[in-house]
Amino acid sequence: MKRLTITLLCLFAAGVAAAQELDTVIPVSKMFLDMITITGTRTPKTLDNTPVVTRIITAEDIQKIDATTIKDVLVEEIPGIEFSYSMNQQVSMRMQGLGGMSVLFLVDGERMAGETLDNIDFQRLDMENIERIEIVKGAASALYGSNSVGAVVNIITKNQKEPWTLRLGSRLGSAYGEQRHCGTFGLHRGRFANSLDVQNSSQQSYRVYDKDHSDSTLVYGAHQWNLKDKLVFQIADGHQLIGRAGYYFHERNTSDYQRDRARDFSGGLRYVGTLSENDNLDVAYNGDRYDKSDYYTATGYDILDYKNMQHSLRALYNHTFSDYLTLTAGGDAMYDYLMTYQFADGESHDQYTADLFVQADWSFANHWNIVAGLREDYFSRYGWELSPKVAAMYKLNDVKLRGSYSKGFRAPTLKEMYMDFNMANVFNIYGNENLKSENTNSFSLSAEYVKNYYCFTLTGFYNILDDEITTIWDPTLGNGRGGMKYMNVEGTDLASLDATLMARYPCGINAKVSYAFFHEFTRNGAPNTSDSRPHTLTAQVDYLKAWRNYQLNVVLGGRFLSRATFYTIASSGEGVYDTYEQTTSQGYTMWKLSLIQKFYDAITLTLTVDNLFDYRPDHYQYNSPFTVGRTYKVGASVDVDKLVNRIRKKNSK
Description:
Maltoporin, Chain A; four-stranded mixed sheet; 39 strands
C-alpha cells in the first residue's frame, strides 16, 4: 500500500508538471442523445428519436471502467445483471429472472457460436477497439429471432479512420499474477482500412477466504488470447465490403494434470451499399466455430469433446418513402451443427433455420414515432414461430414517453433436445425432442426527461413467460433410478422497474445512478425459483480536468446487490430430486476507485483500487463475488501514432 501511494503521488506530480496552461472547458454533450443507434430498429436513428428504450455504453465509459471483457462492463453499468459461477466454475449470467440463453449477444450484429452451461463464453468478448455497446431490454424476436427474450446486447467495433494508429497497453494486478497486455494497429490507405487487435490476459489459481477465514474456495487460474481483424474496402462512394476474422484461445487450470481449453475461429464478409437516395442494402455471411477440449499435461493429448459450428447468411433492405416513413425488410438463414460430450456415444446433431421479417418506421405530427414489425422463423427440428412487435414514442418539449409490446421466443437448443449426460454418476440429464419454444409477451412503458445537464429515465417492464424450458425430475427414467429431463413448464410473470439519473456539468463532474427492481409472480402456488435479486444499483461519479498537456480523471464507481430468497430443487432422500428447499443469497456492496491520467494526449496511466472497502462474504456461495479483498491495479498505454505526430510537429517548428 505504501509503495502504491508513493507511485500515485509521483505520477500526479509529473502530471501537474506537464500541465503548462489551462485549456478551455470541455463542452458538455446533451447526454449523448445525438448518438446513432441501430440495435432497437436495425436502422440508424439518433438516440433521441428511437421509440425503443436503448442504453448506450461508450468507448469513454469502457475506458473509465478499465474493462477486459463484457462481464466487467455490464456489472458496473447495468443493474439487474449478475454474473456467478455454475458447475465447475463456468461463468453464468442472470438478468431479472431470465438466464443467459434469454439474452442475445451480438458482435456487429452477428450471432456467436458455442455455449457453456446455458451461456455463451463471455471471455470471448474482450473490449479492445470497441466503439460502443448498445443494450435493448425487452423481447426483440421480431428483429433478431430466437434467444432475444429478455434483451439484446450488441457490441459495435470501430472502423479505422486515421492514416495509421498504434496503441500498446499493459495492466498488472496485485491479485495472483493478474495481467493483461494488448495492442491495436490500424492502417488507412486509399480505399482500404484495416484494424488488428491482439489481447493476452492471465491469472494464476488462487484461494479465496470468507470474512472469518473459516471457509475457502479455490478459483482456477487461466490465460487467453484474443485476436481480431477488420478490413474495410471502399468499392465506390456509398459501397463498402467489410471483412472480419477472429481467433480466441482460453485455457483453464482445472487440476495439476488437466486443462480445460476453448478455441474459436470466426470470419465473415459484409456488403453495405447505398443503392439510391432512398434505398440501402446490407448483405452478410458469418461463419463461427467454437471448440472445447481436455488437455492432459502428462501425455500432451488434447482431446476434442465439443464442437459447435454456425454458418449464417442475412440480408437487410431499407427503403425511405419520405422523411416520415421507412420500410425495412430482411431475412436470415443459418446452419447449426453441434457435437458434444453431453450427447450419447459421441453423437452429433444439426438443424437449419430461416426467417423473413418486415418493419415500418413512421413519424408524424412532429411528436409521434411508431415502429411496427412482424417476423416468421422456421426451425427444421420443430417448426414455425411468429413474432410481432409495436413501439411508439411521443415527444413534448423535454419529455418523451415510450411504450411497446413485443413477443419473444427461445427455441430449444440441440443440447436441450438430444442431451444424454451422466452427472457425476448421481443421475442422468436427458433431452426432449418434443420441446416447444419458450415464449414471452413483453410490455414496457417509459418516461424520459432531459433538461440542461440532466437526464432521468424511468421504465417499467412486464414479461409473461410461457412454456419455460427447464429440467424436471422424472422417476421413470434411468431404468427406474430416475433422472432429470428437459420439459416445458407453465412459466411465470416477471415484473421489473429501471430508473437512471445522469448529470454532466461543464466543470467536469459527471454522475450516473441506475436502479433496478425485480419481482417474480409465480402461478398456481408454485415456489419462487428465481435467484435474481429484487434490488440492484450501480453508481458512478467522476471528475475530469484537462490542461494543455495533461488530463486528470478520477472515477468512483460501485454496485449494490440486495439479498434474494428463493427455492431450489432438492432431494427428499435416496437421490430422488422431487422437493424444494428455501435458500438465501447474501447481499453485498463493492466499490472501485480509479485515477486516470493522460499525458500529451498520447500516454495514459491508470491506477485502480478495486473492492475499495475490502468486502469479503460471510460464506461463499455460487453467486458470491470471489474476491481476495482489496486489490490494486496499475495500467499504462501509449498511442504511438499521436506521440510520433507530436514529435514531428514540434521538430518542424
